[in-house]
Amino acid sequence: MSNLQNTTSSSVIFLLTGVPGLEAFHTWISIPFCFLYATALSGNSLVLFAIVTQPSLHEPMYYFLSMLSTTDLGLSVSTLVTMLGIFWFNAREISFNACLSQMFFIKLFTVMESSVLLAMAFDRFVAISDPLRYAIILTDSRITQIGVAIVIRGTLTLTPMVALLTRLSYCHSHVLHHSYCFHPDVMKLSCTDTRINNVVGLTAMISTVGVDSMLIPFSYVLIIKTILSIASPEERKKAFSTCISHIGAVAIFYVPLISLSFVHRFGKWAPPYVHTMIANTYLLIPPVMNPIIYSVKTKQIRRAVIKILHSKDT
Predict the structure, then answer these.
(1) Radius of gyration of the chain measured on its C-alpha atoms
(2) Which residues contact 59 (CB under 8 A, 6 or more apart)?
(3) What transmembrane ranges does the database entry give (predicted)?
(4) How many CA atoms within 13 Å lie on the side-chain side of 72?
(5) Pick the residue with more confidence: 292 or 5?
């Protein structure tokens, strides 16, 4: 019994996994991941810098975009060290406390991204349905309150889920099946009852990402209803075009997330490296694609980014 208790202490060391069966190619596999990380970090930093430094972008829509870029930066940094550490140096060991910290921040930034996407949907709804009162409804102080609420929401819902892992005993293998600490992965290594952990974890995700995934489509039902009520075809087209970037951001966040869930549940026939590669890329797709989508589809962002890049050249 004492041995089981010892395994619950912070001295527990977990072993992360690279790409099972392709260990000999980790150095080559690291090349596209390095490119993705570089793209995510530079792209989101550039968008964030543009919004902060360009007065023309000090509007509600771009404040929410800056929140999205911040969460994408956090999500990228949360996995960068362990993932590249495995590919470059085969540094698989991670302490129990470091594992819990990484898990918390990955989940926090994921929930925050979902919340920001919901806030952006609300922003688009207000801008299209009530443009004259847009600036009155979404004031700077209200946007700040929304940002603080997003952080508090994620922290309060996820802290119990992560904290409850400290009560478990880890007497099985300490080998995790991902390049980062994944909540279901850690629970599988426990030799004690995890039903409470499962319930709390499921409740946390349903009450955040689950609720957001229903409210965002509902907001677009209202947006489409408003757009269809506009008499001018040109105005309808213009109103809908302001939503294209956000729709793209929602798709690249939820589609990989749903795909990962399906693979974990129904893809048991697939080779282990398929699960790992999907799990690794699902966290990188939104941070990589969001700045590209907004730079391409949003004229103001594109102009601001080009202006910054030109100023650095001169």
Answers:
(1) 21
(2) none
(3) 35-52, 73-91, 103-122, 243-267, 273-293
(4) 34
(5) 292
**Alpha carbon separation from 7 to 10, 143, 179 (Å, rounded):** 8, 45, 22
DSSP string, 7-19: TTSTT-EEE---S
Q: Which residues pair with 14 in a beta bridge?
A: 94
Number of other CB atoms surrounding residue 242 within 10 Å: 16
Report helix, strand or coil for 175.
Answer: strand
Task: Tell me if 74 sits within 8 A of 96, measured CB to CB.
Answer: no
For residue 109, give Cα distances in angstroms to 62, 65, 252: 19, 15, 15
Which domains does the chain carry?
A: 13-312 (1.20.1070.10)
CA 196 to CA 167: how far, in whole Å?
A: 11
For residues 250 and 114, give the distance between their C-alpha atoms in angstroms, rounded to a whole number. Answer: 8
Q: What pLDDT is stored for residue 3 in this prediction?
A: 43
Beta bridge partners of 175: 15
pLDDT at 68: 97
Each residue of 45-96: pLDDT tens digit?
A: 999 999 999 999 999 999 999 999 999 999 999 999 999 999 999 999 999 9
Number of Cβ within a 10 Å radius of residue 93: 13
The counts of H helices and E strands in the chain are 14, 2
Give a three-class secondary structure readout of 102-171. Answer: HHHHHHHHHHHHHHHHHHHHHHHHHHHHCHHHHHHHCCHHHHHHHHHHHHHHHHHHHHHHHHHHHHCCCC
- Are 78 and 102 in contact by the 8 Å Cβ rule? The answer is yes
SS3 181: coil
Cα of first residue to Cα of last residue in the chain, in angstroms, is 69
- C-alpha 312 chain-centroid distance: 30
